[in-house]
Write a structure and sequence with these properties.
Length: 334
């Protein structure tokens, strides 16, 4: 089926490619165009990964004692790359969690995400809080050398890095995703850690004193395993762009689409599947109940086409078949 060969549109349900065509005709900015990062913030980032504080001994792979490894409950798809994540707070500092869906991290916080592709250690990304304001973040990817003894900052990104199919994003693209939330941090949150499969979950970081306001009740996603898998996948892969509380920006529309629907899971909106933003805003617009093949969310997720508005648009060239199957299974049951 071509990008324009779609079944007749049902009343009240316009396919997204029509909206995309309209935006193009209106001359709107390409969503893949991003403003360059702030040079003063970027200057705070070291030139080498070994200087960032992640490792006590980088050659041996020994992580520093004040660094915490964690895993989100739902992963952003990165073409099957193996990923490991770490966080370090300044000594004695806490995350301001008075707003459970918009954690504010203290100045000096650092988060790292390591990528291996086909067994090759390719890159480690750093997201660092470099000032007191919510937007005072800087990010860059470090590409590893051949012998795995260090990695160097690569602000321009790299295609097919280290002989793998993995593309390293440019620093300008980082806030395309991270700029979509008030906290600027995606995988380290109340929702993600409550569902974490690792030893360091929401209860553990609360016990460590990392949160200013630990949740007063357990956080659990609504619905059965089928609904949770789909809602979690949409939250992890789509909500940083498609949400109605995305911070405004005066610059290029860097991965900032129209806010007609919202895939975000929020602590106060998970009493039932029907109370989630996904159900309230996406079901009936980009999700056709009972019919995944007539749902634009599926149509976007099942493609990787530079001439078609695919989802997610950044950091992937291969369709996430497991995530797509989870989305289809849930829509089929609606």
């Amino acid at each position: 089926m071509s990008t324009r060969e779609r079944r007749p549109t049902r009343a009240g349900f316009a396919p997204l490619w029509l909206a995309a065509a309209g935006l193009a005709a209106a001359g709107c900015d390409d969503l893949r165009e991003c403003d360059p990062p702030d040079p003063e913030r970027q200057a705070e980032l070291p030139a080498a990964l070994s200087q960032t504080g992640l490792y006590a001994d980088i050659a041996a792979g020994t992580v520093a004692s004040d660094v915490v490894a964690y895993a989100p409950g739902f992963e952003l798809w990165s073409d099957g790359a193996e990923k490991h994540r770490f966080i370090r707070l300044p000594n004695g500092a806490q995350i301001d969690t008075s707003a459970q869906d918009a954690w504010q991290f203290p100045d000096g916080t650092r988060l790292w995400k390591e990528f291996r592709r086909d067994g090759v250690l390719v890159e480690t990304r750093l997201l660092a809080k470099v000032g007191p304001a919510p937007e005072d973040w800087a990010a860059v990817a470090y590409v590893w050398n051949a012998d795995g003894t260090d990695a160097l900052a690569t602000p321009g990104g790299a295609e097919d890095a280290r002989g793998t199919p993995h593309d390293v994003p440019a620093a300008a693209e980082c806030m395309g995703c991270h700029g979509g939330t008030e906290s600027r941090v995606l995988g380290f949150s109340a929702i993600q850690l409550a569902a974490s499969p690792g030893a360091v979950d929401l209860d553990e970081i609360a016990a460590r004193g990392m949160l200013s306001h630990p949740p007063r009740r357990p956080i659990g996603l609504p619905g059965d395993a089928v609904a949770q898998a789909a809602l979690g996948w949409l939250h992890a892969n789509c909500s940083h762009c498609h949400n109605r509380t995305r911070p405004s920006s005066d610059g290029a529309r860097c991965y900032d689409p129209q806010r007609r629907f919202d895939f975000t899971l929020r602590v106060d909106e998970i009493a039932s599947v029907e109370s989630t933003a996904t159900y309230r805003t996406a079901v009936g617009t980009v999700i056709r109940p009972g019919d995944p093949d007539d749902s634009d969310a599926v149509e976007r997720a099942r493609r990787r086409d530079p001439d078609w508005p695919s989802m997610p648009p950044l950091g992937t060239e291969i369709v996430d078949q497991d995530g797509l199957a989870a989305l289809r299974a849930w829509i089929r049951r609606l």
